[in-house]
Amino acid sequence: MEHLVEHMRLSHHSAHEPRCGVCGKHCRSIDALRDHLEFGSVVPKAGCASVFTARGCQLCLAVFPASGALRAHRAACQLSSAPTQSQLTRSMSRMSIQGGGHGGAVALGCKMVGGGSDGTLDVCARVCLIDEHENILYESFVKPLIPVTHYRYEMTGIRPEHLRDSAATVKLARKRVEDFLLNGEDPWKIRTARGSARILVGHGLDHDLDGMGMDYPAYLKRDTATYPPLMKTSSRMMSNSLKFLTKSCLGYEIQNGGHQHPYDDCVAAMRLYKRMRALRHGLKGEVKGCLGPAPASVAEAFPAWRQRELERMSPGELLRMSKPDYRCWCLDDV
Questions:
Q1: Coil, helix or strand at residue 211
Q2: What would the DSSP string read from start to end of 121-171?
Q3: What is the pLDDT of residues 1-20, one digit of tens each?
Q4: Which of 9, 255, 262, 334 is at a distance of 20 to 30 A from 287, taking alpha carbons?
Q5: In this structure, how many other beta carbons lie within 10 angstroms of the beta carbon of residue 166?
Q6: CA-CA distances (angstroms) from residue 167 to 91, 116, 159?
Q7: In the prediction, which pLDDT does 284 show?
Q8: Phi first, then psi: what are they for 266, rounded to 5°?
């Protein structure tokens, strides 16, 4: 039991982690769970893989009691791609009448062009902000503060004429985005209390915010690039691309060549966030709310002075005491 207690100190296992629906194994990420279910070679993993092949969802990795339940589930789990450009225009005009609403979450996406002598400096040239229902709150080309040396047209579809007089200045675009994020709250207040401010969702949020010269409190950011369950299985916990996450978790493809609209990235990030937020881990005593306490440290969860008591506990009791080293999105109350 001494070794089990030490393992729990180091692993941060909890009910919030992705878990095998066959054997109950805890995994650090969805990628690790996918490896356990589909590519294992030792006997326990091979047993799980055979059950998962027959009754498991390839997207959310849930295992169902019968194939009929799996077929019914697939219809809801498999999502289609974002609306076309014509549908996008109708969505924008509708939101200009309805307004932004109150609270909730919004997703931000930016497209960058190249600046600097060699065109490798990322400069924000287009921004898009959507709500939870995938309606556009704000979308505009942005006039860069420095000369553009590479428009990256093959990917962005941005031409010089897009960034001339009709494009918003960086200051104006930043003000519009901040207005939607703050939702009437004073900027200094949201540093310590959310109020009616909105949760900001995205992929590589710090990069996009830097491109617009913005900052936002870390406790209000939900980044699909740095959320541990969505990261790679390596010990370095490297990020997965948004393209990979969309294909593996949502079931459709984005960024397949051609001109990329930031709306597609916003929709993919928001759908990933909502899927993670919708998970129910069956926990008692944990209160939903955006400003919940940070995860307990190892010392708080398994203090050394309780070593003898801890060694007498069952694995289930130790698991109930353990806390993840990140804040699970299922605890968000938007």
A1: helix
A2: EEEEEEEEEE-TTS-EEEEEEEE-SS-EEE--HHHH---GGGGSTTSEEHH
A3: 666 767 666 667 778 889 89
A4: 9
A5: 10
A6: 20, 21, 12
A7: 52
A8: -60, -45
CA distance linking residue 24 with residue 132, whole number of Å:
32
CB 86 within 8 A of CB 246: no
Q: What is the distance between the alpha carbons of residues 330 and 334, in angstroms, rounded to a whole number?
A: 11
Instruction: Identify the CA nearest to 289 among candidates 229, 220, 224.
Output: 220
The amino acid sitting at 85 is: Q
CA distance 244 to 67: 27
Q: What is the pLDDT of residue 118?
A: 92
According to DSSP H, which parts of the chain are helical? Answer: 2-11, 30-38, 43-55, 67-77, 85-98, 153-156, 170-182, 205-211, 242-245, 262-277, 298-301, 307-311, 315-321
Q: Using CA atoms, how far apart are residues 240 and 56, in angstroms rounded to an integer?
A: 23
For 74, the token pair is: 């697939």
Alpha-carbon distances, residue 253 vs 131, 224, 265 (angstroms): 21, 16, 11
Mean pLDDT of the chain: 84
pLDDT in tens, 175-191: 999 999 999 999 999 98
Question: CA-CA distance, 300 to 282, in Å (whole number)?
Answer: 22
pLDDT level of residue 39 (50, 70, 90 thresholds): low
Interhelix angle 43-55/30-38, rounded to 10 degrees, is: 100
